[in-house]
Amino acid sequence: MWSLIVLLVLSFVAYLFTDELIPKLKELFIKAGLFGVDLCKPTKNKIPEAVGVVSGCIFLVTCFLFIPIVFGNGLMDTAHFPHNEFAELLAALLSICCMLLLGFADDVLDLRWRYKLLLPTIASLPLLVVYYVNFNSTTFIVPWPLRPWLGLSINIGFLYYVYMGMLAVFCTNAINILAGINGLEVGQSVVISLSIVIFNAIELSGDQYKAHLFSLHIMIPYIATTFALLKHNWYPSRVFVGDTFCYVSGMTFAVVGILSHFSKTVLLFFIPQIINFLYSVPQLFHLVPCPRHRLPKYSAETDLLQPSKTVIVKRDMNILTKVIVEVASLLRLVDVREDNDSIVMNNMTLINLFLVKFGPMSEVRLTKSLLLFQIFCSCIAFTVRYPMASYFYNINN
Ligand code: UD1
Ligand code: MG
Q1: For all residues of the chain together, what is the average pLDDT?
Q2: Entry pTM
């Protein structure tokens, strides 16, 4: 436990350092051409972009500094050095580091969508190799109502590796597409990471405490540096975090989920991102036109945000698009206006859906509402994970 205390102190220093460094580096980013315009503001000031690289680097450095502290004892006694645990930590940091590099490349080069899917798959390879060598457990425990048909557990073999690779792709991109208003990318990551930490803390008293301690070793420095970033990214944003931050965060959550064996619980903390992804599918697969930016539209007269729109030309509509528009408007999931030759409807993101349901609101209020929803979903996740899971998996019997 003393290593946790050292980690808390180190992370606090990392927080202070990140908080100091970000304003100092702002000009440097703008000079390098790394800036964006806040689309939800009347002014067109240059705001540094990809600043997630600063918090990401300090997060990684903190983890590196921590290595000799956790493994220091092992170094004295090389015969009993915990090679497996060491390899796990190194692979985890390598995957996150890869994602930092690839995310930064994306911010600088503005990569196309197909590469955004490819990058996390490649970055997760070190992780999967270590998983193969150390655990290679590819079985799922079956909930008891299904056991008469499926047995106690099913081994899905190679598919389990496909699942883990897809988890990394999902976590990284899901955060990136629930974005566009000040503080939302970082805010949601803070809520998810705090949920993971609470879960780890509860599980520290269980028999898997080593795995959860491992997760804490990564999550604590992550939270510290991310909090400092949030301070500067909160409304009105002085910096943008870029895809770098979204990728590093997603990969960090995937890494701890996979190596500490609670990937399904991590997915439970991603409920708003899953809803946003499913809702976005028609636009992501271009069944409905997808503009470069889907973030809400700012109205200078009212200083409020409104849902942003996409236009579907009727004669370009195929049958699938028609079905999607029909079903979505029947379920009141979209706001549709129709004229002779086109259909105008809101861009299909959870952010716009909130504006459709609750009416135009200010940017801060929208961010706060979405973050409250994220917290609410984490509460649901804990309810599913504990009372319901112990029922379905007979944990106490
Ligand atoms: C994703 C979304 C896109 C959304 C964008 C916003 C999909 C498929 N893509 O694209 O719809 O518009 O994120 O981040 O859903 N910005 C703001 N205020 C903020 C944050 C960002 O105005 O609080 C704007 C700035 O102009 C900034 C730009 O968004 O420069 C960054 O967008 P980027 O991260 O490059 O977009 P994507 O991740 O490709
Ligand atoms: Mg982005």
Answers
A1: 93
A2: 0.95
For residues 108 and 102, what is the distance between their CA atoms, to the nearest angstrom? 10
Which residue ranges have their beta carbon within 6 Å of ligand 1? 36-40, 49, 176-177, 179-182, 237, 240, 243, 293-295
The domain segmentation of the chain, as residue ranges, is 2-269, 284-358
Give the residue whose CA is nearest to atom 14 of ligand 1: 180
Ligand nearest to the CA of 40: 1
- The reported pLDDT for the residue numbered 82 is 87
Q: Which two structure tokens, joined as six digits, stand for 262?
A: 């609670």
| Ligand 1 atom closest to the CA of 177, numbered from 1 | 15
Using the mean position of ligand 2's atoms as its centre, give its distance from the Cα of residue 27 in Å.
21
Distance from Cα 315 to the centre of ligand 2, integer Å: 32
> Which ligand has the shortest distance to the CA of 295?
1
The SS3 call for residue 309 is strand
The count of residues in the chain is: 397
Q: Give tens-digit pLDDT for 213-271.
A: 999 999 999 999 999 999 999 999 999 999 999 999 999 999 999 999 999 999 999 99
* Residue 49 alpha carbon, nearest atom of ligand 1: 30
Burial, 194: exposed, middle or buried (Cβ in 10 Å; 0-12, 13-18, 19+)? Answer: middle
Alpha-carbon torsion (277, 283, 284, 290), positive or negative: negative
Q: Which atom of ligand 1 is nearest to the CA of 243?
A: 34
CA atoms of 264 and 275, how far apart (whole Å) = 16
**Does 397 score more than 50 pLDDT?**
no
CA dihedral 337, 341, 347, 353 (to 10 degrees): 20
pLDDT bin (cut points 50, 70, 90) of residue 393 is: confident
pLDDT at 389: 80
For tokens 């655990």, the residue is 135
Q: Which atom of ligand 1 is nearest to the CA of 35?
A: 30
Residue nearest to atom 28 of ligand 1 (CA): 36
Among 277, 271, 246, residue whose Cα is nearest residue 374: 271
User: From residue 86, how far is each of 67, 100, 230, 240 by CA, in Å?
Assistant: 9, 21, 31, 34
Q: How far is the CA of 176 from the centre of ligand 1 (A)?
A: 8
Q: How far is the CA of 145 from the centre of ligand 1 (A)?
A: 44
Euclidean distance between the first and the last CA atom of the chain, given in angstroms as a whole number: 30
Q: Which two tokens stand for residue 297?
A: 């539209």
